[in-house]
């Protein structure tokens, strides 16, 4: 059972009905980009496997020579910005914790 010209024409007609003629070029572009990205990722994985096999032999000979010092972990700019925002929030009078008045129950 082979696909004839009428079946192909029917499939094209259904696709046009579903997606519309204006969206088909965008859809084709998107499929092409996805295929290109997929090909590049597959090639990269194959190259990584080759480099990893070659790199494993050199890594075993280089390992005793490496004397890396442990790095000190510092706060990044995002953490510093977060802390400064929090400090600014608590420095405002309306956000500061009020002392308990004698004779009042704070949990009530």
UniProtKB/TrEMBL annotation:
Polar residues composition-biased segments: 76-90
Swiss-Prot/TrEMBL keywords: Cell membrane, Membrane, Protein transport, Translocation, Transmembrane, Transmembrane helix, Transport
Location of region: Disordered: 42-108
Molecular function in Gene Ontology: protein transmembrane transporter activity
Ion transport listed as a keyword: no
Major place of residence: membrane
Residue ranges, compositional bias (Low complexity): 49-66, 91-108
A biological process term (GO) from this entry: protein transport by the Tat complex
Leader sequence segment: none
GO cellular component labels: TAT protein transport complex
Top-rank lineage group of the source organism: Bacteria
Localisation: Cell membrane
Membrane topology: Single-pass membrane protein
Record text on subunit structure and interactions: The Tat system comprises two distinct complexes: a TatABC complex, containing multiple copies of TatA, TatB and TatC subunits, and a separate TatA complex, containing only TatA subunits. Substrates initially bind to the TatABC complex, which probably triggers association of the separate TatA complex to form the active translocon.
Family statement: Belongs to the TatA/E family.
NCBIfam families in UniProt: PRK00575.1 (NF001854), tatAE (TIGR01411)
Function: Part of the twin-arginine translocation (Tat) system that transports large folded proteins containing a characteristic twin-arginine motif in their signal peptide across membranes. TatA could form the protein-conducting channel of the Tat system.
Entry protein name: Sec-independent protein translocase protein TatA
Species name: Corynebacterium appendicis CIP 107643
């Amino acid at each position: 059972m082979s696909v004839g010209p009428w079946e192909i024409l029917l499939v094209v007609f259904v696709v046009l009905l579903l997606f519309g003629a204006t969206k088909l070029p965008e859809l084709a572009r998107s499929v092409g980009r996805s295929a290109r990205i997929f090909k590049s990722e597959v090639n990269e994985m194959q190259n990584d496997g080759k480099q990893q096999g070659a790199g494993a032999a050199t890594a075993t000979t280089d390992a005793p020579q490496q004397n890396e010092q442990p790095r000190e972990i510092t706060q990044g700019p995002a953490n510093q910005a977060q802390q400064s925002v929090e400090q600014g929030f608590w420095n405002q009078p309306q956000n500061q914790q009020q002392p308990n008045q004698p004779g009042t129950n704070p949990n009530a």
